[in-house]
């Protein structure tokens, strides 16, 4: 990936409120947004992604819940939300039976863990997301929280890269 220094500079130059708004669009955890903002100025794309990784590593379980609150249920992208629809493109045109299975597996997961099933859906098919959901359902809450942390980091990396590439 190429560096877009102007995009990075523009992001770093945003005032605190504007930057917070931009970062909360990437990840809905206020603690994450504050930690990434505190790491500026970022010298490169890699430095911004490192700030994401460091911020994710520092999140508590409650912070992870804040971050997950900004994500649509797998198989049900938020209508009119281009990010949600793009990230879940793998469910487009999928058989209703698979969507029904996703719905049932999501419900069982949410009943067990108390939050949406979170996976970096970019580039995944509905079938692979369903398989991952079933594979992760037996996890204990601590194991699942660490998997969620890793998936959120990947999603944030993709969103931060898109932000820099779009600028």
- CA-CA gap between termini: 14 Å
Q: What's the overall geometry?
A: globular
How much of the polypeptide forms β-strand, as a percent range? under 5%
- Which regions contain 5 or more consecutive residues with pLDDT less than 50? none
**Main sheet summary:** none
Enzyme class: lyase
GO molecular function: 2-oxo-4-hydroxy-4-carboxy-5-ureidoimidazoline decarboxylase activity
Protein name: 2-oxo-4-hydroxy-4-carboxy-5-ureidoimidazoline decarboxylase
Keywords: Decarboxylase, Lyase, Purine metabolism
What brief labels describe this structure?
single chain; 167 residues; mainly alpha; UraD-like; 2 domains; 9 helices; lyase; purine metabolism
Task: Write a brief caption for the model.
The chain is mainly alpha-helical and 167 residues long. The protein contains 9 helices and no strands. Residues 13-161 form the Oxo-4-hydroxy-4-carboxy-5-ureidoimidazoline decarboxylase domain.
Describe this structure as you would to a colleague.
InterPro entries: OHCU_decarboxylase, OHCU_decarboxylase-2, OHCU_decarboxylase_sf. Its EC number is 4.1.1.97. Pathway: Purine metabolism; urate degradation; (S)-allantoin from urate: step 3/3. The structure is a single chain. It is built from nine helices and no strands. By secondary structure, the chain is mainly α. The chain has two domains: 1-59 and 149-167, no CATH class; 71-136, Oxo-4-hydroxy-4-carboxy-5-ureidoimidazoline decarboxylase (UraD-like), CATH 1.10.3330.10. α4 (45-57) runs antiparallel to α9 and α7 (96-113) runs parallel beside α8 (126-136). The chain is globular, with a radius of gyration of 16 Å. The two termini are 14 Å apart.
């Amino acid at each position: 990936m190429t560096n877009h220094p102007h995009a990075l500079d523009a992001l770093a130059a945003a005032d605190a409120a504007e930057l917070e708004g931009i970062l909360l669009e990437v990840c809905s955890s206020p603690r994450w947004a504050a930690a990434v903002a505190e790491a500026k100025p970022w010298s490169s794309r890699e430095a911004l992604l490192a700030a994401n990784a460091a911020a994710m590593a520092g999140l508590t379980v409650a912070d992870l819940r804040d971050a997950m609150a900004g994500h649509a249920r797998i198989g049900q992208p938020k209508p009119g939300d281009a990010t949600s629809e793009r990230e879940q493109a793998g469910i487009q045109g999928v058989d209703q039976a698979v969507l029904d299975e996703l719905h049932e597996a999501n419900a069982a997961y949410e009943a067990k863990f108390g939050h949406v099933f979170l996976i970096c859906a970019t580039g995944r098919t509905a079938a692979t997301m369903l398989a991952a959901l079933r594979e992760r359902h037996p996890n204990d809450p601590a194991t699942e929280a660490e998997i969620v942390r890793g998936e959120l980091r990947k999603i944030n990396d993709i969103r931060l890269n898109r932000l820099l590439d779009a600028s």
